[in-house]
Amino acid sequence: MKRKMRKVLVLAVDYDDDISKAGVTTPVVGYSNLVDAALKFGSVFPDDSDLNVLFHALHLYKELKEGEYEPEVALISGSSESHVEAGRKLRDQLSFVLKQVNVGDVVLVLDSVEDELVIPVVQNQANLIAIERVVVEQLRGIEETYVLIGKYLRKAIEDPKYSKIFFGLPGLLFLVYALISASPYAKYAWEITLVFLGIFMILKGFHVPEFISKKWYSSSIYRVTAVLSLASISIGTAFLVGALVARNFSADLRSISTYVKTFLPFLTLSLVVLHTGRLTSRLLRRSLRAWRDVVAVLFIVAVSLYVNNVVDIVMNYPELDILAILYDLKVINVVAVISLSLVAVYVMLSYVERYVLGYAKRT
Length: 363
Description:
This protein is an alpha/beta fold.
């Protein structure tokens, strides 16, 4: 009696879409098509690690075919623009491949930690039964080490994704340091340079550029509000730097109050503009969630006004102990009341929103 063959999909992954640089369009489905893609890619980039992934997938396909499996093989790729775009593209291509081959079990073939970001995408659409990690063996001689270093340096120069980190960021920091050193504020050159470095690390760490890019292309309203918000923050930062320089970067109570007083209006305006833009977008879509932005704007304005009043009092009595001032003004109590009120309003309106949406679905 002939045994039933078990179907499985051998799926090669190119997360940053290097394969497209050789003119290969993904998804690629089928053994012969993948062989052609591998030869085409290898003729252009013979030393790229993704080439090993393609041939390993072909090798695994032949191994499974000789056993008790009925394998299919395919290649999908993401994007070098951002993780968001890469995830979206991988999801769409995987959905297309699964519909075409009609296979539920998947064996992933990949070669880097970055490629492993595709794992949740696969698990949401198919049954991931195995992961094949391709490790390329390298000789350890001095000559080979120099060649390998040269290869990665060339990649850092030619690949925009790496060149802006290895060359763009240091170049910007050198430029800032040189300009500050040539100015009357040369003694603050290191501090200002570290501020720029810190801002860059925060932006990249929280994926702010990707978030802004996604919002920027999603609506013209977001584009306008983003520009206005950024302008407000930029102007506020310029005034804050002026205040820091004017007070010689002092950290006494009156100086800190001056810094807060200077930057607070611009920060408040920036946040209010952003939430107003989202509120407008939701109102145009007739979304019930518009109330969230109304609550956010009211909360931002209330906190800003209260902080401004506290700073005014602190500036009038800088010689007093800050803890005594905060205690006398009951700052902690007021902040607690505002926060609890916000939570109460948010919970109540969330319940109303769920009730209305549930009623709409039932009817």
